[in-house]
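Good morning C.,

I know you're traveling, so I'll keep this short. The sequence:
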Amino acid sequence: MNGLYQFYRSIARLVALPSWMLRYALRGWRPRRSWTLGNTIIVRRYCIDGFQFASHPLRLPLFGQVRLIRWQFDTNSAVGVAGREHQDYSKLPLHRIKDHHNFVLIPPASSHLVVGDISTFADKANVKPEMIIGYWFGKTPEEESVRPEEVVVMNMHGGGYVIATAHPADITAAIAKGLLAYGNKSGTIDRILSIEYRLSSMHPFKPGGQFPSAILDALSGYIYLISLGFQPQNIIFSGDSAGGNLALAITRYLIEANHPDLPVPTGGLLLVSPWADMSLQHNRPGGTSETNYESDYMGSFLNVENYALMAFIGVHDPREYLHNPYMSPASPFLPDNPKMFDQRWPRTMIFAGGGEMMLDEIKSLKHAMVEGGVEVTWCEMEDAVHDFFLCPTFEGQSGKGFEKVVKWLKTRRSAPPHE
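The tokens, ready to paste straight into the viewer:
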């Protein structure tokens, strides 16, 4: 079936390319006048490659769309664990994972560290901390011991909680690679740990990974970094799209747990196009979910969004999406008092694309954080798409973005709230 899909994709590209070149030859015909022809074609290609199956004349059913998206990620990254279903990583042979020299098995967090609301949700879903996989970008702790006051980034990949992987060959690894490259040049970051977390799944796949599995896995990754000798004030959480949602959720948990064995990380939060409202309340007429539809590849991902939301919520009440700040920190249904953010939160840098559909909800997240007293550095990249760091033809915006991150890292004291 993978071969059949690859054949379909190649034919679709060949058929579409001439029409794209004619349709978008003039700047005025492109979704954004600032885009090059290459920008336009790559966004259209991403739609064909991974997402736009429901708008295809074949009109595949939902389970077929999800299968094809997962097959596409499996085939493209070919890393052995992409698009995986739940499995016991402690029993996974190392030869199953390519380039495993930077691979680490991370022990599960102790169950006594799971407290409060997350403990309640975990009990209901019958999930607990489990061993996870991590990948080091840069030198591993075995190659070079942790230095005093060394800054480290714990990265969480995107993918709607249902696809992608932390593996260095995955498309989402572009962020970790870029952070490392620019961090090495500037002397700000020498290594990054990118963690796997349980992906959510339901029929036609084996059900698993429902909320709060990913938070428990992120907790295990954080405890692992602490055990290596990294200080909480030097640990930065980063995440793109769903990974940004997870970075917010694990930060919220560590703040609200108020546990003597769980120090709050104050190094910072780096969010790239974070999924901030799983309630979908920002998907409204006249909003960016509508006005930016043509300038973003995410429009076709909405075809399987219901699958992602149903798989992620699992046994819990779907109304949690409206009121649960772990899921939807930018939901308009969250109470104003108490505020969802306060000065206990670390300084935060938020990237958003000016052409992305989720821009409204990301702006709502920024507003809520600023209102709560969080130090926020806002970077809206003009005419860029969702998660633009992953798009090859947006490398100009990506380079500027990484330069902004380096500047932010070097400024450990207060920075202006907007850029």
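Safe travels,
E.
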